[in-house]
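Worked example 3 (structure in, sequence out).
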């Protein structure tokens, strides 16, 4: 059964574009509290269903689809790499799903090709033909041409063959840059998207007695409140620890924590989350440029929002995604082992396992162990790499982590990476543990 929050979102989505939406009317129509209606309308705004216009109000708008990796067409690839079309011109409108660098034997290369992918390769006519037969377009580097029969095959299958004067790895870097340029344009979640606004924020005045804290605590069950002065500027935070053993007539400003961390509505959610986790802060007041209270965010709200963002469709496939999808865990009682295979996306320009992927393996393995042991989420504090040896493409590797120290809030893990019988990498990770 859908929650009230979900019911309101469906109701908003069913409204015609141009309809005006108010918190009070939505609460009345759907028989929910105004607070529930407000939070759902705020979420609808984050999803692009509604927009708040000054002196007009909140209006139902046409939802815009966000740009993503799938919108990168072969025609756009030509512009990115200064290329020219050799064949298959009628397929330029098709969208690119992924690209494969052909720096390997033909049999190995074919395993990574699929429909609507792009093979980036040099002067290898047989590979050009096989790629087209697999439904993939071809980008020939180094300014080379290809056989006429392959051009005819490209026209027949409506799959572009493009030639560029750049080398293979320069081309791959240029396409990656274009992808990440689109990533940057993706909407960034801000504090203002998730914060509890002033109307629903409970706070204390610096001159009030701490008996007022007990009143708010009984009313809301919360134990932390921002403290303001007479001009509504944030001057402190007061928690249950601050008032224990203090007479109820004591003024709040005598027990509060002064100069608390604050954020603006324009602050990125990622920055706020980082500060709250590392400083161990449960709530942060949201202020304007004059430091006046506008609302607050809690660590629980931030973590929930980040989890929600992680569940959204992402642009393309990141290195972490590739590492995660190919990593298999083996539990041997007191010992854990992880197995993976070095794919083309994991390699550097020399065709060996890149240092960045090496670090990603270390982080992912450590996180999985902590999750498996139900110790909570791992926040990496330090990774010390002692050595790393070249690991070739298509190599099978085994990652063996060993927990050196573990406490309630921190962990230290020794990690070795093996290829066949050799140790090819060794590192130590130190991290903090955050309860779920």
């Amino acid at each position: 059964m859908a929650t009230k929050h979900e019911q309101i979102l469906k109701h908003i989505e069913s409204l015609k574009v141009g309809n005006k939406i108010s918190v009070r009317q939505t609460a009345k129509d759907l028989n929910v509290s105004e607070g529930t209606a407000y939070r759902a309308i705020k979420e609808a705004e984050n999803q692009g269903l509604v927009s708040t216009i000054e002196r007009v109000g909140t209006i139902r708008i046409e939802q815009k689809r966000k740009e993503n990796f799938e919108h990168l067409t072969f025609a756009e690839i030509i512009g990115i790499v200064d290329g020219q079309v050799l064949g298959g011109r009628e397929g330029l409108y098709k969208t690119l799903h992924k690209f494969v660098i052909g720096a390997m034997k033909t049999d190995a290369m074919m395993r990574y090709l699929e429909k609507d992918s792009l093979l980036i390769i040099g002067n290898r006519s047989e590979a050009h033909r096989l790629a087209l037969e697999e439904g993939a377009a071809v980008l020939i580097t180094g300014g080379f041409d290809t056989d006429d029969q392959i051009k005819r095959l490209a026209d027949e299958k409506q799959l572009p063959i493009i030639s560029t004067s750049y080398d293979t790895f320069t081309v791959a870097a240029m396409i990656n840059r274009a992808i990440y340029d689109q990533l940057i344009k993706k909407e960034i979640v801000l504090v203002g998207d998730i914060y509890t606004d002033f109307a629903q924020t409970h706070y204390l005045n610096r001159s009030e007695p701490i008996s007022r804290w007990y009143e708010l605590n009984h009313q809301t069950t919360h134990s932390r409140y921002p403290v303001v002065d007479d001009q509504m500027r944030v001057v402190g935070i007061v928690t249950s620890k601050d008032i224990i053993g203090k007479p109820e007539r004591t003024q709040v400003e005598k027990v509060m924590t002064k100069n608390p961390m604050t954020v603006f509505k324009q602050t990125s959610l990622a920055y706020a989350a980082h500060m709250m986790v590392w400083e161990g802060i449960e709530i942060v007041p949201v202020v304007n440029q004059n430091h006046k209270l506008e609302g607050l965010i809690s660590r629980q709200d931030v973590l929930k929002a980040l989890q929600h963002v992680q569940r959204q469709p992402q642009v393309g496939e990141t290195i972490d995604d590739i590492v995660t999808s190919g990593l298999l865990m083996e539990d041997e009682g007191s010992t854990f082992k992880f197995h993976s295979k070095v794919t083309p996306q994991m390699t550097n320009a020399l065709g060996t396992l890149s240092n960045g992927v090496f670090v990603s393996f270390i982080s992912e393995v450590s996180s999985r162990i902590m999750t498996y042991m139900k110790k909570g989420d791992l926040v990496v504090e330090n990774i010390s790499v002692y050595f790393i040896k070249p690991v070739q493409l298509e190599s099978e590797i085994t990652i063996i982590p060993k927990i050196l120290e573990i406490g309630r809030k921190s962990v230290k893990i020794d990690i070795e990476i093996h290829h066949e019988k050799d140790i090819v990498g060794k590192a130590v990770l130190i991290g903090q543990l955050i309860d779920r």
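Notes: The first helix runs from residue 4 to 14. The mean pLDDT is 83.
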